DNA sequence: TAAAAATACTCCATAGGTATTTTAT
DNA sequence: ATAAAATACCTATGGAGTATTTTTA
């Protein structure tokens, strides 16, 4: 009685509404005229209103049929598009990609990587959020993100996650412009080590934190941590305010805050690793994104980020 | 093989995606588990990709299934709404109403009638256009409009059309403000009749044209037609420019053009009829509109249009 | 009277049911 | 051991076919 109306019935309505001729519409539907007549009658009975005006001079739409036509066209068209959605999603070309990232990578190659990914994956809905390592690990647990860039070595992420070294860059020293060290071309470890340090909290970026502390200890110094801050922006602001010096990834030098100068100190041997992390096994769209980042990483020449940190010498 | 996928299959997918449990989903679909298993398998085969991940700890959506879910929800929801569209259209509560009108009625009760009709027929798409009688009659022929307001007596429209006297209003005299007649309280027919006349062309509004000419002839005068114009706005502008005087429907006095004054001359006995016209037999939405206008015509008190024409006496 | 829609009936493809097995924890 | 999905097989509804009648311009 009030069984739901199937797409078959709407397709028959659509063809008849377009042809306005039972015989031709039936032929286009790969059927004969009598069953089409019956099907349309049944549809009209279930809707409780006629959809076509039959007369000897042809078939015409009633007002109800005319009102239905555009809606049915949309419905049938939408239904025809569903298989493509499924196939595209299975191939990683459609769907949703929830991506988290630490702020530092956003000053580096991430925007370009995203732009390139969008070009070839227009039907993937990208959902971006900035988050630190600990927040991202929790988000993986609760299935709130699909992938993320973290300040961490690829080998150090939990085993349930896949990881790939997305970016390895030297750490450079951020100094207040007014600071005496800012004018020297040759820095000495004891002078640098004596300065108060602005740094990430250890839980946010353990590998970066540990690397900096190890370098200080290797030179026999103990760092004085003046302030901890989570955002790159905040760290640079604190340096600008004269709170101390900071070791930051080289790409962050793009943040040209007045009152801050950067010094590249290759001799310090300090570097920072950003990994792309994802839940294993990777669903197709995540796999596509990982592959894209791997390819983009070596494709376009790396040096396109403006070097804004003057190089200085470092002596023990 | 590539037979189209029916709504039945999408409904089954939808219920399973919501329950993530074959047994319960089957029960909600008023069927048993085995045919649902088969149906989902067949759907996955036809799409060429699995939609569900079956494991002992439950059923989960694959990326393809997850991408499909919102689209299928929309599709099934849209399909469920179609019967309502058909029924509403059959009752005249949905669909499209293409309405033409002469400019004069737009200064009168038409806006209020349309506002009221919209309130009770929110799902009717109103398509309005201004057009003169001759254009409207041609548009009825080519099925470009469903109904129209014309400056014509209801009895004078072609027999294939239904008609209803929507508005009967006196004609008032529009005079240039600087004109000597504008200062007098008593006008004489010979003086009025001697003035050059601005009027509609006869094919645009035959009944109005003929009524004016008959009045002139009854008083023994022959009107001097200075200018013909189609738009009310244009006629008033020509009067303002001193081209002559014009007889216009009373509601047009709402057009307060500087340099024009209006004089109501009841003794002239000149009136103008606006009819609502439609193709017979009226389709439901047109019938609803006609009924609405009939009711609105006597419902709200008529005098709400500001009287802006001073009454003057007219002597032979 | 002729073209097209409606009716009458026949058939079979397939959606769904029942019984049972397999699977994974 | 058990809950749930998969498989095997059966049934019957209803969608589509052929033949024919009715309708109306």
What's this entry about, in short?
The structure is a homodimer of 316-residue chains. The first copy, chain A, has 316 residues and is α/β, with parallel strands linked by helices.
Residues in helix, % of chain A: 40-55%
Overall strand count of chain A: 14
- Report the radius of gyration of chain A as a whole number of Å: 32 Å
Q: In terms of quaternary structure, what is this?
A: homodimer
Which pair has the most extensive contact? A-B, 42 and 42 residues
CATH architecture assignment of the largest domain in chain A: 3-Layer(aba) Sandwich
- Structural category of chain A: alpha/beta
Q: Which stretches of chain A are low in confidence, meaning pLDDT under 50 for 5 or more residues running?
A: none
How is the main sheet of chain A built?
Answer: 8 strands, mixed
How many domains, in number, for the residues of chain A?
2
Order of helices and strands of chain A: HHHEEHEHHEHEEEHEHEHEEEHEE
Q: What name is given to the CATH topology of the largest domain in chain A?
A: D-Maltodextrin-Binding Protein, domain 2
Averaged pLDDT of chain A: 89
- Which overall shape of chain A is indicated by the principal axes computed on the Cα atoms? rod-shaped
Count of helical regions of chain A = 11
How far apart, in Å, are the first and last alpha carbons of chain A? 90 Å
Kindly provide the name of the CATH class of the largest domain in chain A: Alpha Beta
Fraction of residues in β-strands of chain A:
25-35%
